[in-house]
């Protein structure tokens, strides 16, 4: 029985290691003078890495074999499969003609992904019981990598394997730089962990299905995946913009009362602030 229990602890880590293998295999396909078909295969390998990465945590929870070792291994796997591998892939596929600028932009994607994972681990260690929230802070690195590989896969399917056009190199560089900044930003992205079947979720699913059908019929079925990733990016930006606006409005409304109460002058003429030390005004931090 004890041996079986020990083997169960290996199972989720096996999924994580398989994700690392997919990322490593993608990098081997990108070395040298990689052809478009090889870069397409590398994108598919990273896509499969996303599949294994998505299931290792679920397997661990299902078998009740969560561990600190598994958490750290998962972060290291993400750096390889969704940081280094997509960076090398997008450099060979689109950014190489830009020379050092393209190399730096590709590196920034890997570096920002590593920084985001480090921030996630630090916050999780400080608040081990605070996980499972409704939002991520910053774009998750698997989603950022998924956006890149979905563009590569869709482009290959839509153009029958033609190389990227020269006019699309600069827009692609801007997109990679934008994804890098979103990973280290404080933009909130939904985890959808608290989603329940109801009228609102059914309406959202229907809109996604209708939008995907329109894109598949009017453009190309391959671009549906890109549209889904783009919709998730836009949703996070929109919700964060609404949140910032609501906070600014709340501060303006509270400003007259706050001025009257916050500053109290004592007998020596010293000013005392009526706020708790160390308490931020931005609310709780989400991972």
From TrEMBL:
Listed A to Z, the keywords are: Lipid biosynthesis, Lipid metabolism, Membrane, Phospholipid biosynthesis, Phospholipid metabolism, Transferase, Transmembrane, Transmembrane helix
Region ranges (Disordered): 266-287
Reported EC number(s) for this entry are 2.7.8.8
Which residue intervals are annotated with compositional bias (Acidic residues) in the record? 266-276
Q: Which reaction does it catalyse?
A: a CDP-1,2-diacyl-sn-glycerol + L-serine = a 1,2-diacyl-sn-glycero-3-phospho-L-serine + CMP + H(+)
Localization, per the record, is: Endomembrane system
Which Gene3D superfamilies does the annotation name?
Answer: 1.20.120.1760
The record ties this protein, via Pfam families, to: CDP-OH_P_transf (PF01066)
Which PANTHER family does this UniProt record tie to the protein? CDP-DIACYLGLYCEROL--GLYCEROL-3-PHOSPHATE 3-PHOSPHATIDYLTRANSFERASE-RELATED (PTHR14269), CDP-DIACYLGLYCEROL--SERINE O-PHOSPHATIDYLTRANSFERASE (PTHR14269:SF61)
Name under which the protein is recorded: CDP-diacylglycerol--serine O-phosphatidyltransferase
List the lineage, top down: Bacteria, Pseudomonadati, Myxococcota, Myxococcia, Myxococcales
